[in-house]
Specification:
single chain, alpha+beta, 3 domains, four-stranded antiparallel β-sheet, 16 strands
Length: 457
């Protein structure tokens, strides 16, 4: 399903540096040699569930990589961000806001993927979400086509039921005036699109070389650097399929979902200069099973759904996405969904050990505790923290509690640093330590077995 968009995007990525040089002093610093450059303030919130401490940056050249000349900031634990951006960089072709990394406040898990937002205005909140990511790859006429199609999903007689404001809304803001049916439908679509991008990215990454290729340094066939995360290409491929002339706004079919994955595989083959790898039909069937599972969980006609239920069901989706991400070759999506449904998905509260439950579903041996065991975990007691873990550089370090100062400290190569600690909830703590000017972000979670998981993110 190769389209002309493929070639134009590859050309854009390969020539961005030249566009930066024109009127600028350097490809490495587009501002050098310019005058009368203004900084603009942008602010908003990162949402896929609220994403705490995500890195938000202006991707001035559209390469999915934060280059040294591009502004960046970190969202707060509450997921809000404020960033100063260069007005000249905003005018570069393909310039968008990106958000990556961080912790999903609803699931307590590391956020996977890259979210995007077209910068269309200043002075108002700019939500960055899965839906704004999808829209960022569309032309204005395509956005309206998508809006009308989704409107008719809610009201077949009214293709204006959803507004552009609705599509850009913070769906986690339950104090907003967004109606419940709109919120539930858009949350469903957000989860479907992003989890498709998430699990397909993990599968395609391995098909095309894994971390050895997608390391942020290796060059693509067109000379641009290959990013570490490929989910942006998945979103782009989804839009390409949906905007084909023969597409009739019925996303929820095996053929359409398979075409989205195949389109991304073709795209990555061209990008990396490799032969196209075939994506297994079993994997595509599992993607469809996950998509249908999300569809069943979020029924926009159910006017009794509460915030707690929506968040519990979001955790259930993350469990299944983790199963597919970690064990796509096991072909256990349908069985995992059945076992999860047997628990009652509305029982997956804030105390749920999402990753532990996913690992339990992956283990089909029947050994170990009951699945219900993973619905509760102890609250975090910082005074008991003393764990070895790996830094982002894969070097070993230790996070431990210092009773004299009453804080966490990180020990690395015989030196000790104070950690800045922020609590997401009773079960999840974020810590940051700056070593040689490089921030090390650490996630500390309690587990259902009473232990702690300490890891870099």
């Amino acid at each position: 399903m190769k389209t002309s968009m493929h070639k134009s995007i590859l050309l854009l990525l390969g020539t961005t540096a030249l566009l930066s040089i024109a009127g600028c002093g350097s490809a490495d610093d587009p501002d050098r040699g310019t005058s009368h450059v203004q900084n603009l303030s942008l602010e908003g919130v990162v949402v896929d569930g609220r994403v705490a401490r995500a890195q938000v940056f202006l991707d001035a050249n559209g390469d999915y990589i934060r280059n040294p000349f591009e502004s960046y900031t970190f969202a707060t634990v509450a997921a809000s961000y404020a960033i100063e951006v260069n007005s000249h960089q905003l005018q570069q072709p393909g310039a968008v806001l990106r958000a990556r990394g961080g912790i999903d406040r609803v699931t307590g898990e590391t956020f996977h993927g890259i979210l995007s937002r077209t910068i269309d205005t200043t002075g108002i909140d700019l939500t960055i979400s899965p839906l704004t990511t999808l829209l960022s790859y569309m032309e204005p006429t395509q956005v309206n086509s998508f809006r009308r199609g989704e409107s008719k999903q809610l009201d077949p007689q009214d293709d204006t039921y959803l507004s552009l404001t609705d599509l850009h809304a913070d769906l986690s803001d339950f104090d907003s005036t967004l109606s419940l049916d709109r919120r539930v439908h858009l949350l469903k679509r957000s989860l479907q699109f992003h989890k498709l991008a998430d699990v397909a990215e993990a599968s395609l990454r391995e098909l095309y070389g894994g971390e050895a290729i997608f390391d942020g340094q290796t060059r693509a066939a067109n000379g641009s650097r290959l990013p570490r995360d490929l989910s942006g290409y998945l979103y782009r491929s989804m839009v390409e399929v949906m905007m084909e002339p023969q597409f009739v706004q019925n996303i929820d079919t095996q053929d359409i979902l398979s075409a989205m994955v195949d389109n991304a595989a073709e795209y990555l083959a061209e990008l990396t200069g490799q032969d196209e790898e075939a994506v297994s039909s079993d994997f595509k069937v599992q993607v469809k099973a996950m998509w249908d599972f999300i569809d069943d969980l979020f029924d926009a006609t159910d006017d009794t759904l509460t915030r707690d239920q929506l968040e519990s069901r979001t955790r259930a989706v993350e469990v299944i996405a983790t199963v597919l991400r970690d064990a796509a070759d096991a072909n256990i999506a349908a069985a995992s969904i059945a076992r999860l449904n047997a628990l009652d998905v509305d029982s997956l509260g804030e105390a749920t050990d999402v990753r532990g439950l996913a690992a339990h579903l992956i283990d089909t041996s029947g050994a170990g505790p009951d699945a219900a065991t993973f619905l509760t975990r102890p609250t975090i007691d910082l005074a008991t923290i003393d764990r070895d873990f790996s830094l982002s550089s894969d070097e070993s370090a230790t996070m431990l509690y210092d009773p004299e100062s009453g804080t966490l400290k990180l020990t690395y190569e015989g030196e000790v640093w104070d950690a800045e600690v922020e609590q997401v909830n009773d079960y999840t703590v974020l810590a940051q330590v700056v070593i040689a000017g490089i921030p090390q972000n650490v996630l500390i979670k309690s587990k259902a077995d009473g232990d702690y998981d300490v890891s870099s993110y």
